[in-house]
Amino acid sequence: MRRVHQPYADVFVRNHVDLAVPGAEEKIAGRLRGTGLVTVDGLASRTAVLSFATRIMNLVPHRDSDSDGLTTIRDTRRHAHRAGFAGFGNGPLAPHTERSGTPNPPRLMLLVCGQAAETGGECLLTDGQAVHADLFSGEREAAVALAQPRTAFFGAGDGHATQVFTVHDELRVSMRLRFDGLARWNPIVQPYLPRLRAAAGRHQVRLDLAPGQGYLLDNERWLHARHAFTGDRLFWRALGEPLFPMLRGFAPAAPTSVGTPMLSEAG
């Protein structure tokens, strides 16, 4: 059995930025360009979350957002069994890219805990760079197939035809994924989906958030998920575009292994 590699032994501490120190925005931008992940604390209210979000992104309104641009994530007891609405139930969420069924998913996602669950509800994060490297080192045919253009369709009837791995200029790679009922797959990639799911699980880390704590991630690199929970779990989410320059995707961990057969157009 392959050993699970977890580059973030304590994901919260290793990626934490103190929002009160001068130059916090520059530190956040640098970490997002490097690891694609930042953890924060001290955001004890919706107002504080919104204030921080607007310091680092232009918020993108969407179907689920409220009038201020944030989305309230809690168990509504109405949406649990509707495809694409699982986040508003209390069940588990599989690793996914936020807004994967749109042509251009927002680059950044901020998720902050307002109230922790009674039991469960831990956040789960998967580094797409690690998944990409894992597949190329041990399942190269899977990685090549998953980069073929238009081999996946994410979303409902108005969704988007795309691929799991997209290669951009300078051979940087972005990842886009979902495993729920709104994911449809070309027969070319069907045999490789168990390997993809296994790789996503091997590189998953758990993040236990207390009220006021949260994470900010590069939505082209990191997948996020959660455990099922009980109780009145409450989170606030912001989606948007960074207020600072960021190259598309991430640098592959093993760039020499990325060859012409996997090249695809950004989409």
Detail the topology: elements first, then pairings.
Layout: H1 11-14, H2 24-34, E1 37-40, H3 46-56, E2 57-59, E3 71-74, E4 93-96, E5 108-115, E6 119-120, E7 123-127, H4 128-138, H5 140-145, E8 152-154, E9 160-162, E10 165-167, E11 173-175, E12 183-185, H6 193-202, E13 204-207, E14 214-218, E15 222-226, E16 229-230, E17 234-242
Antiparallel strand pairs: 1-14, 2-17, 3-17, 4-15, 5-14, 5-17, 6-16, 7-13, 7-15, 8-9, 8-12, 10-11
Characterization of the model:
The strands form five sheets. Strands 1, 2, 3, 5, 14 and 17 form a six-stranded antiparallel β-sheet that branches. This protein has a four-stranded antiparallel β-sheet with strand order 4-15-7-13. Strands 9-8-12 form a three-stranded antiparallel β-sheet, with no helix packed on it. Helix 4 crosses helix 6. It is built from six helices and 17 strands. It has 267 residues and is an alpha+beta fold.
**Helicity level, as a percent range?**
10-25%
CATH topology term: Double-stranded beta-helix
Listing every helix as H and every strand as E from the N terminus to the C terminus, the arrangement reads HHEHEEEEEEHHEEEEEHEEEEE
Q: How would you state the average pLDDT, rounded? A: 89
State the end-to-end distance: 35 Å
Strand content: 25-35%
Any idea what the radius of gyration is? 18 Å
Task: Provide the CATH architecture.
Answer: 4-Layer Sandwich
**Count of DSSP strands:** 17
Task: Identify low-pLDDT runs.
Answer: 1-9, 255-267
Instruction: Determine the structural class based on helices, strands and strand pairing.
Output: alpha+beta
Main sheet makeup: 6 strands, antiparallel
Let me know the CATH homologous superfamily.
Clavaminate synthase-like
What global shape is seen?
A: globular
The number of domains? 1
